[in-house]
Amino acid sequence: GAVVSQHPSWVICKSGTSVKIECRSLDFQATTMFWYRQFPKQSLMLMATSNEGSKATYEQGVEKDKFLINHASLTLSTLTVTSAHPEDSSFYICSGKIDYGYTFGSGTRLTVV
Amino acid sequence: ELKVEQNPLFLSMQEGKNYTIYCNYSTTSDRLYWYRQDPGKSLESLFVLLSNGAVKQEGRLMASLDTKARLSTLHITAAVHDLSATYFCAVANNNDMRFGAGTRLTVKP
Questions:
Q1: Which residues, including other chains, have CB under 8 Å from residue A74's CB and lie 6 or more apart?
Q2: How do beta strands A10-13 and A108-112 pair?
Q3: What is the pLDDT of residue B14?
Q4: Greatest alpha-carbon span in chain B
């Protein structure tokens, strides 16, 4: 089946540094990739929708200059958290749209210290 | 705006009992999904419901969809400990998918 490979699975970074999260579609072409953030014991909140070759669409309240999304190819989308702060610590999950559903990456747990 | 309401948020069950999780949504939808999430893990797809009256079953879980009432249910039959997890419904309309708040299910011996 369609698989999205997400890396890294966890990362610890210092406050003020940037972190890049990659999501690769392994056996399908992901024209659309969704990026979610999940705080502990909460639901998934959509951050942005990225389409290959165009600018991402960000949800209200998500800073596009802080969460940079690049979707330059049909198999790779990246999320860069710039100048990370402790409040950015969360579980980030990407999702690629497939025929009648979505396939999710394994998630990245970001801890900013 | 597409909104999804899920209840209950917390559910503690004894093994062998039955229960139902409810998912209401606010606008016409193309598809409804049920997912399972174990602690520290990503989402595992359980069911995709595409049309009114759709019913799908897998093991002790059965999902149904009533598009007129904008309601989906996830029924748990004779719960076992292995079903302990958080269950999310999600509703999609075109490219917009929204998640319910999740139901944290704990099955006790």
A1: A25, A29, A30, A31, A52
A2: parallel
A3: 95
A4: 42
